[in-house]
Amino acid sequence: MISVSDAFKMTYKDAVSCTKLVEPRKVAPSFAATRRPDLSNVSVDDVRKLTYKELQGLCQWKRLPSKGLKKSHLRQRLVAEIKKQEKQEEMQRREELDTQFPLDKIVCFLSKKLPPNPVRAEDGYLYDEPVIQAYIETAKKEDRAITSPATKQLMGDRLFPAPSVKEYINALVDCEVIVDENLVSLWKKQGRQEAAMDALKASAASGDTSAMLKLGFAFGAGTSCVPKDSTVACTWFQKGHAAGCVRATAWLGYCYITGYGVEHTCSVKGMAFIAIAAAKGSDFAAYVLGRALYCGKYGMPVDMDEGVRWLQKSLSQHDCPLQNLTNRERDEAQNILVNHVVVADESTPPN
């Protein structure tokens, strides 16, 4: 081991011979030395952290003028180059995807929109399930042969799910390959609706009675996310009733008196549910009960006075705080009450 004092006493030759015996210090490679010239591994954030020499090195690799430029100018030049390269890569990716998945091959032939529920019919073309299903049902109702909307040739009514197409469409939308803003907007709106429906189902599964009622309405009317299914709708009303939802009880009763979504119509059972819901403040149930008594419907005896009393309750927020009547139903209840008053006045003997 050579001390510092010995080193000062050495001749030039001795010093040179000693330095050959010392292992050279390993220097960590700089950022610029470890990066590829194509900037594929360098982000805009990385550029902001580079030293002046590293910025010069990257500029030289990209053959960008760097001599005499300040650090801020070098950084701006590199950032612009990186963004340019990213844009070129994105355009190339779009072209590749557009070649693999032409837009006319992933659009519903009937609706000319991106299909949220893609299926293939027997003609081999892609359709949105509710759209092609409605087309087939219309042909059956009109008692005519089912023909392909695309080829006009005869085809069967079988539909084959194509879930992979939906994944492809999501990828194309995410990569902004589809430039038609209307198509993309409708697709994203459908995605938001599906997410909301999934959240609604999760809430219903956790015991949310309001969510159960909304699911009953959704399946009753049919939406872009769920098919129209009266049986499923009635099932959700049943679940809501069991969980204590008064509105669900009212609609469950309505299902039984009209035969909607149940195997057999049962006026007795239905009116029992209606009476329970009306007593608990459902304006819809009070309206149905009032009409049934006033007109003698659903197996109820005619009792106009009692019918009027329940119709009046249905229009009162104090008596029926659970408001669910439509404008048409309110108008009908008011018309019955007005006509009843007129009839009562006419039947009153003069003094």
TrEMBL record:
Listed SMART domains: SEL1, Ubox
The U-box domain sits at 105-172
Query: A GO BP term, please?
Result: protein ubiquitination
Q: Which GO terms describe its molecular function?
A: ubiquitin-protein transferase activity
* A Pfam family this chain is assigned to: Sel1
PANTHER family xrefs: ERAD-ASSOCIATED E3 UBIQUITIN-PROTEIN LIGASE COMPONENT HRD3, SEL-1-LIKE PROTEIN
Q: Which family does it belong to?
A: Belongs to the sel-1 family.
What name does the UniProt record give this protein? Sel1 repeat
Organism name:
Seminavis robusta
